[in-house]
Amino acid sequence: MDHGLTIGDVRVPGRVLMAPMTGVTDLPFRRVASRLGAPYVATEMVAAAELLRARPDVVRRAAVGDGLPLTVIQLVGRDPGKMAEGAAVAEQAGADIIDLNYGCPAKEVTGSASGSALMRDLDLACAIIGQVVEATNRPVTVKMRLGWDDTSRNAAELARRAEALGARAVTVHGRTRQQFYTGVADWDAVAEVKAAVTIPVIVNGDITTPDAAREALARSGADGLMLGRGVYGRPWLAARLERALRGEAQPPEPDAEERLAIVVDHFRQALEFYGERLGLKMFRKHLGWYVEQAPWPADALERRQAKARLCRLETPYEVEAELAALWRPEAERDVSATSVLNPGHTRAIAGGA
After folding, report:
1. The pTM is what?
2. HEC secondary structure over 283-318
């Protein structure tokens, strides 16, 4: 059985993809998720106009890096010319696939008539697709929602027009923009999009377990699926669901020792990528998610206290020591927090001896 996806001239060695997420899928996260077996992890959403002006934070979001199975750069914007120029820059930077964001529901994005606001102006949305396809030799894909609201569910129409213009795949989040992330994703509605096109269709929304993955594919008829918020604190999720879809024995969730190694690897990569001060700041949300997903502490109050302690710490050594204490087997967690993970390395990072 074929377990991958073909998008233009790019072979994706799996059907479980990770969505582009601002503040989440930066280069350190993508490296960790890829090492754990994710076949496709997109960059954070990149504003094409700001990329062309070489704003440092925007360029950082599009960072390509080495050691990834493939590079997917997602662009957002409403100016067809700037989006086309941005696509050319993305190709020069090493993008294997260029994804267009027509799905972000955030007010700061839709307020500038970008993201899912483009689903209210399909002529402009298609003008962007056409110019981007002309500007790059890389496959162009489109990530969208079902529509702006329940009175204008036009994802199938947009997908048809996108395919005619040369788009090579579409991803559909099973909610309208006005739903944001409330309610439940409508996987059945994605089947209408699948029936409208011959290019691959990827279903997105509320997929966090093997059963949900199988049901989403069955109800939508989609060729693959995309994970979003479900990967917070679980960068191994794509690989786990991929094995389940292939009928292989599901690996258990990582145990305490494995989780500790993953968290510390992710943390150190963030420090290396951003520098110590910014790296600590950027990683705090990930620390919170890792604690929320941990098998302990089971008590909600203890979890909140653990997250608060971690977010107050000011040096990498302190963070690693607290993590080591938190992830010890329960019987040993009364021991004072002392890093068990190469203390010399962590002290060096922290500027100590």
Report:
1. 0.88
2. HHHHHHHHHHHCCCCCCHHHHHHHHHHHHHCCCHHH
